[in-house]
RNA sequence: GCCCUUGUAGCUCAGUGGAUAGAGCGACCGCCUCCUAAGCGGUAGGUCACAGGUUCGAUUCCUGUCUUGGGCGCCA
């Protein structure tokens, strides 16, 4: 295909550049061409004359007229006229517009794919603590992250999808001790279950598994366990605790963990590991079912095991960015724009989560990633300056790190807000949600809201209106094309012949508009990838489906006129292809029938 | 208090330094003897929170006020 016939936009820019050289030699300007919303403004519009008005000290309309006068002739341009305050509106020849259909058919699954871009990019997302089932908040991060990664890959980047497994911290200890307490309870060694331990039934399931596999091997008397831990507050289960009581609860839980480690010795690791691998496996299976795949599951613990955390702290110290106060080691992050300094090593000698995160990000650079996208919950936004600060302190390219914040999902059942607490186990899991509304509707629903805006997810609505979810509107367009093609094939039609269709037969306004829409797909991919905005693709696909449905209702595809039929089917197949390419990025299926 | 975020149609939300600001839902009126009506066409509905500023041009950028939500631990 000739680039002149399919890349109309670049062609027009060339024409304008040439005219500019005649009208104002030596003047430099960015040539912008946009697709006007209003069809009466032509197919493309340029504001070049307005941009030049200031430099040339002349009326924009006058400049526009001279530019139009100097435009080289082109078969692709039907009309170039001055409008409004000084726009130059181009109307493109029909043939130049519909040529895109052949290009779509030729490129198939690759239509819209961007040119290979240099560098290695990592997208890290979900990274939920493996302490229980994923919930609807994680579902949003997963839908956004997976779509963003696919979008970036389709736009031409080399992308690695990574899940950071927080297998080293206190939360994991709490999960392990929760499991152990349930296990002890099943042997009659009853210890009041702390309200700040993990409450979910899956903890009992794991306890049962341990029991089945190893019997009473890990049993210790309840009295011995409690003897090691500071007492819990007097009222174990009654609503709002005061600050002091909360502190008391945490101290009690830490005491139980210490007791477990002490009494179990090496066997503590078995409980810990069992809980970890169970939850991680569950999480992985959940995400795979959801269509969310990771290339790398990176262990936080490995950063400790390889000495990377100690090395990172030592390096910061060597560079003079640490100081000691109150027995702890502090990173002077205020030197790098943070609002206060941060502890990297506590008074008790343990590293903070921040310390391992510094090591983790250092490691990302060591692995050769030239751009790193972290997708975090919005509550971590205050965390960005300190991580970037640490990177700067280590002389790493802090600007190579982009953090995309995913805002909270508030769950509603009707007008009633569903309270969510991970530890209390009172939350709706991603699995339940997927089962209720389906994977496709679920993933698409999440993408209908920009990720940095909070989202109200009404379960009743999602369920009752699942058939009204816009995803079906798009899938329906796809299925409709498939259905027509099936009938045509039954009548002896052959899809392979469509690439030779005479596209000149596509003369109606709707057909021209559809072709123009298809031509804009690569630009949309490019801009959505640049902006990190998969939702833009979701909205665009809905628009494309709308254009298709309108056309489908206005014109019959399987007409008697063989030439026209071929051309229309070719256009329909091109639409189907673009819908397919778009939905694949969003992780949504493109069904042949509905 | 400081930092971030939000305000656009009755509701839920897109969008843009440019021309007459859009969609879905809801409301109302129409369209299947015809390729899938999970669809289409039409009507009604707006001071783009408010006030200044920058600009040829501001709903978009800047400042202030009001407003929505979040964050400010030797938690992770």
Tags for this model:
594 residues; alpha/beta; five-stranded parallel β-sheet; 23 helices; RNA-binding
Description:
This protein has a five-stranded parallel sheet. A four-stranded antiparallel sheet has the order 1-2-4-3. Helices cover 52% and strands 12% of the residues. The chain is α/β, with parallel strands linked by helices. Helix 7 packs across helix 10 and helix 20 runs antiparallel to helix 22. It starts with a helix and ends in an 8-residue tail after the last helix. Among the domains are: 90 residues, Gyrase A, domain 2; 138 residues, Isoleucyl-tRNA Synthetase, Domain 1; 108 residues, no CATH class. The protein binds one RNA strand of 76 nucleotides through helix 3, strand 9, strand 10, helix 14 and helix 19.
